[in-house]
Design a protein that fits this description.
single chain; 102 residues; mainly beta; 4-stranded antiparallel β-sheet; 3-stranded antiparallel β-sheet; 1 helix; 9% helix
Length: 102
């Protein structure tokens, strides 16, 4: 595929978090807890925070330096998560890899 130069520059200058995974998914129903972990992208740009998405909808954010998030969704449904990095100038990266609950 051929991408416009601005998209390629954005990925290079504003890379997404990497290696997102589910550390644990425990409990059920209203007691369910899902812990996400990821690695900060390798970049010289200043990251302000991470945005966490569940089923493609914004869920919460986590300050830079805290590469984990605990979700308590309140149900036993299956979910898909991804994370983006939001940089100091307000630019949001493309999404990280997606992870899915069972």
């Amino acid at each position: 595929q051929i991408y416009p130069i601005s998209v390629v520059e954005s990925i290079i200058d504003y890379p997404p978090p990497v290696s997102l995974y589910i550390e644990y998914d425990s409990g059920s129903g209203s007691n369910r807890e899902i812990k996400l972990k990821w690695t900060a992208p390798d970049t010289e740009s200043v990251i302000d925070r991470y945005n966490i998405y569940r089923d493609s909808e914004y869920l919460a954010n986590s300050p830079f330096g805290i590469e984990t998030y605990i979700d308590r969704p309140g149900s036993s449904k299956k979910y898909t998560y991804y994370v983006t990095a939001v940089y100091e100038d307000g630019t949001e990266s493309v999404k990280s890899n997606e992870v899915h609950t069972e």
